[in-house]
Design goal:
The chain is mainly α. The chain has 15 helices and no strands. α3 runs antiparallel to α6, α11 runs antiparallel to α14 and α13 runs antiparallel to α14.
Length: about 375
């Protein structure tokens, strides 16, 4: 598990440094809030197809490691390309290309991790992986905050590609290629159709919640805009980055305990708690004020939401999908989340620009609550299959 964690730590350190600096950089380019929503939404949505196909390809275990290494490398290089942008459209192109590679690599890596540990330890394995992954998401914004004190914003993106490239090196050297029986994947549509019904019902709840679960860059932008009148643009941007660092610290700290709990009690019930926290996140964002206390609570609840969501969705997938379809299962999960991200980030960004932040985040809260209710409604029918 160590190799998986180190690679994810480095990769997240790179692209999260760029993510933290991106809202302020877009402001310098004169882009509206809708531009950030469209960038995040289209990049995540464009990667959905890659996630689905990448998952199907990853049903053949011998392909998984090369796919993962290439994906880490491409994502790192694309993130560094932000520094060359002169328009938000350039950032859209680079983000989309990098996220396509990230989408391809994700199911391969997750399937390798699920197969590397016994079933009774999967929650802890994914929790540990998310903890190191998110520790990188703490280091990345911290790096951006430090570099931003003496370097221009463009230079942050150049530095961000260094850990991204090192992530590919770490995965290549530290993660063992899978051995054992060579599995030939079934035709794509056949593999999708063979996914277990309880897992498909889980995906329905994931999708409904996901179309309200907006990108965290929109929270950074929300905090920045609220704080600018009292702090000025530079201080507001730095404070928003610091809040995001706190968000990621909580995300990292909570991931392993959530995974530990999932090895002992129902992951589905725990995930419903996480989805409810997502509803609370959007609701607070809708009514947030320039108070640092309110913003700190907002980012803290948002961090807890991701700890539950990312750890438990992957744990449940490992339990619900047989080994020969595990790549396709993780691809379907990632694609479902990707389509949700496309809708949610674009929807919130556009509503924000047209009707204001309150309407945008209140809409997101309603959608998250609907997903929570759908997931909770499935407890009885899925309790034996998804534990």
């Amino acid at each position: 598990m160590i190799g998986f964690g180190i690679a994810s730590f480095l990769s997240d350190a790179g692209h999260e440094a760029a993510t933290a600096a991106l809202p302020a950089f877009l402001i310098t380019l004169g882009a509206a809030p809708a531009a950030l929503g469209v960038i995040e939404g289209i990049a995540d949505g464009a990667s959905s197809f890659a996630k689905l196909i990448g998952g199907w390809i990853a049903d053949k275990p011998q392909r998984r490691k090369p796919i993962a290494v290439a994906g880490y490398l491409t994502t790192g290089l694309a993130t560094g390309a932000f520094g060359l942008a002169t328009s938000w459209l350039h950032i859209l192109a680079a983000r989309s290309f990098g996220w396509l590679a990230r989408g391809v690599r994700g199911p391969a890596r997750d399937a390798m991790l699920a197969d590397a540990v016994p079933p009774q330890a999967r929650g802890r394995a994914f929790g540990f992986h998310r903890a190191l992954d998110t520790a990188g998401a703490v280091a990345g914004p911290a790096l951006a905050l430090i570099l931003g004190t003496f370097l221009p914003l463009r230079a942050i993106f150049v530095w961000a590609l260094v850990p991204g490239v090192l992530a590919a090196v770490a995965f290549a050297l530290l993660v063992r290629r899978e051995d054992g029986t060579r599995i030939e994947p079934q035709p794509f549509l056949h593999s999708l159709g063979a996914l277990p019904r309880p897992f498909v019902r889980l995906l329905a709840a994931v999708f409904l919640f996901g179309i309200g679960d907006f990108a965290r860059t929109l929270l950074i932008l929300r905090a920045t805009e609220l704080l600018i009148p009292t702090m000025g643009a530079a201080a507001a941007g730095a404070t928003a980055m610091a809040l995001y660092i706190g968000h990621n610290i909580i995300y990292a700290a909570a991931s392993y305990p959530v995974g530990w709990a999932a090895d002992r009690i129902s992951p589905r019930k725990l995930l419903a708690v996480g989805y409810l926290l997502g509803t609370v996140t959007a609701a607070i964002a809708a009514v947030a004020t320039p108070s640092l206390a309110v913003l700190a609570v907002l980012f803290a609840v948002a961090g807890l939401t991701l700890a539950f969501e990312d750890t438990l969705e992957k744990t449940m997938t490992a339990h619900a999908v047989p080994k020969e379809l595990r790549g396709t299962g993780y691809g379907a999960l990632a694609a479902t989340n990707g389509v949700g991200d496309l809708v949610s980030s674009s929807l919130v960004g556009v509503l924000w620009s047209v009707a204001g932040a309150g309407v945008a985040f209140a809409t997101a809260a309603a959608l998250c609550l609907a997903g929570t209710l759908v997931l909770a409604a499935g407890w009885k029918e899925a309790s034996s299959e998804l534990r």
